[in-house]
Amino acid sequence: MAACPTHALTLPGLQVVPPDPARAELHLDCLRVPQAESPEGAVRVPCLGGLKTSQWLALAATGVAVKYLDRGWCSQCSAGGQKADLPALDAALTQLAGAAPELPGIQRIEAPLPPRLRQGETPDPGLTRTVNRRAFFRQLAGEVASASQTVQGIETTSPSLPRPDGTRRIRPSERLAQLTLLTQMARDQGSPSLQLNLAHAHIDPQRCHNHGICARACPTAALSTYRDADERGIRFDPVTCIQCGECQALCPEQAIEIRPAWPEDANPAAPRTLTRHGTRRCGECGQDFPCNEHELSDEALPLCPQCQKGRGLFETELHRLFGMTP
């Protein structure tokens, strides 16, 4: 689950209830640590590396000093050997450093224990239940399909709606939960102008041919195509962009760039239109096709990309076979 790039998996045992703000501190410990070795009142979870960034943020938002105990077992753990996702958490808390420096935050405490003390897979009987294989995979499929998460009563789940190309997209529930928590924390600290860790997208209009591959490849529909009467193009929603880089990797013209938003970017969270392509009618097939402004000249017969490709192949073969150039 910790390795899932969209944080779609949520299984029982990893739900952390935020502590009472009246407490001075809260300890997080591994469930495989013997109860006698854990501090009194510690929250014990099956995998500290499985906790999502939004769960860490929900704990930090209470104002209680959160301390997670590193027992030195994570690298040999059969659950995957991944430590808690502190780099992502640090990036989120860095955004609050200027607005809420008084928040205690989260601290890593090195408290190694001998490996011989490590208990079995699920020492807590409350997390153990017997299910058959079919029931297990049915439940797991339901968890993946719902991709749901609730953080401090904030419901961030909605159905995944089909796109115009017939496919479905992943709602980035974890990212939306993080942004919601960060915004609320900044507002509570009197800093509503918090700079969020958003993406900035740019498409070179001279290169883009409006194939729409980037929008079809986007797993969260942060990029989408639009079509008006005489205009087509690409729109971008920074809030739902997870900066996976699929659009950059698949664009045949390498026309799109995704980078972190800079402080000087105006209103970085607002959806915006990246490209505007006019339309022309192909002189051969008669179909309307999008084109850039510099391609709107009437000096030459307009050809759609498919007809241009076909004509190019014909001219190449004509020259190869007969040495002729049309």
Task: Record keyword descriptors for this entry.
five-stranded antiparallel β-sheet, 17% strand
How much helix, percentage-wise, in residues?
10-25%
Instruction: Count up the domains.
Output: 3
- Average pLDDT for all residues: 75
Topology order in helix (H) and strand (E) letters: EEHEHEHEEHEHEEHEEEEH
Radius of gyration over all CA atoms, rounded:
26 Å
- The number of distinct helices, counting runs of at least 4 residues, comes to 7
Categorize the overall geometry. elongated
Q: In total, how many beta strands?
A: 13
Describe this structure in words.
- With 326 residues, the chain is an alpha/beta fold.
- The protein folds into 3 domains: 25-124 and 137-179, no CATH class; 198-275, Alpha-Beta Plaits (2-Layer Sandwich); 279-322, no CATH class.
- It has 7 helices and 13 strands.
- The protein is elongated and about 85 Å long.
- Residues 143-162 have low confidence and may be disordered.
